[in-house]
Amino acid sequence: MILKKQVYKVDKKVNPLIGILLFLISILLFIFTLPIGFLYGIFHGLLKKGIVGLGEYLLKIAISIDQLGNVGMQHLLNVLWIKKGGYKFGNRDETISSALGRNNQLGTLTKFGGAIDKLLDFLDKNHSLNSIDYYIEPSDEILDQLVWIHIVDQKLLAYRPKGKTGFMLPGAKKEPKVSDAMTLSEKIKEGWNIALDISSFIYIGIFEARGDSAAPGILVRKTAYSSQYKGEISIDPELGEIVWLKYRDRKNIPEADKLILDFLKDSDLLS
User: Fold this and answer.
1) Cross-strand partners of 82
2) How far apart are CA 214 and CA 240, in angstroms?
3) How do the domains of the chain map onto residue ranges?
4) What distances in angstroms separate CA 44 from CA 37, 50, 59, 162, one per listed residue?
5) Among 208, 231, 248, which Cα is nearest to 87's?
6) pTM for the whole thing?
7) N or C: which end of the chain has fewer CB within 10 A?
């Protein structure tokens, strides 16, 4: 059964004076308490797990510093490392390497940004691509969506939207404070007249690509699930018409859906 333990939502706007005050308090706490906590953490890691524990502790600190850098240097990095329309640095839940990897995928790195990426790649093969974090909190640069995967005879259920020539996979927009299973079940019931069995949900993966009709720098992230269901599949005529996709239909679907078809093909689930 797939239920998200925590669902993030974008922070509400706050009073700028509160932001300044909290910043000053955090600086004071950093100066006076971090050294003590850091030394204690080193000894705790060594005593509990030896050098492994120390390494794990320092890695967490390194990631936190990286996230701090992504926020603190966001405006400079957005000017120096990415082209206009690139995926922007600055998500407080993301590392610099993750944002760098997303721009690598999109082909929106400047020469300077590309050089940094190549340097990291030399030190650690595919560093930025492997660092992409698909579980970061939502931002204006990422459209979060859900997809229901249903395969029969190695053909994938999809539909042709009314008035369109391309195909779409059944799904829903990810909703804050609601589990993926519940959101997807309600949307599929509404449009496809079937009841998904939430207890049978199987997580397939997260697939991210540039949105076909989205503004420059906007990514579409699709979390895919499969499940059993009750009822007979039939689509609301207002949505479009049912189609069953083979891998050869890949060219007629959105970019993120192409990644899903690639995965299913590589898993020998699609003809």
Assistant:
1) 109
2) 22
3) 73-136, 142-266
4) 10, 9, 15, 61
5) 208
6) 0.67
7) N
Please determine, for residue 179, whether its predicted confidence score (pLDDT) is greater than 70. yes
Beta bridge partners of 225: 148, 203
Determine the 3-state secondary structure of 136 from DSSP.
coil
Residues 250 and 259: their CA atoms lie apart, in Å, by 9
State which fold the 142-266 domain adopts.
Nucleoside Triphosphate Pyrophosphohydrolase (3.90.79)
Q: Give yes or no for residue 118 having a pLDDT over 90.
A: yes
Give 7's pLDDT tier (boundaries 50, 70, 90). Answer: very low
143 pLDDT higher than 70:
yes
Structure tokens belonging to residue 59: 């890695």
- The neighbour count for residue 3, using CB atoms within 10 Å, is 11
Mean pLDDT of 226-243: 92
Question: Alpha helix (H) ranges present in the chain?
Answer: 16-49, 51-72, 74-80, 96-106, 111-123, 127-130, 180-192, 255-266
How far apart are alpha carbons 69 and 46 in whole angstroms? 27
Distance CA 61, CA 54 (A): 11
CA distance 184 to 203: 12
Return the DSSP state at 200: G
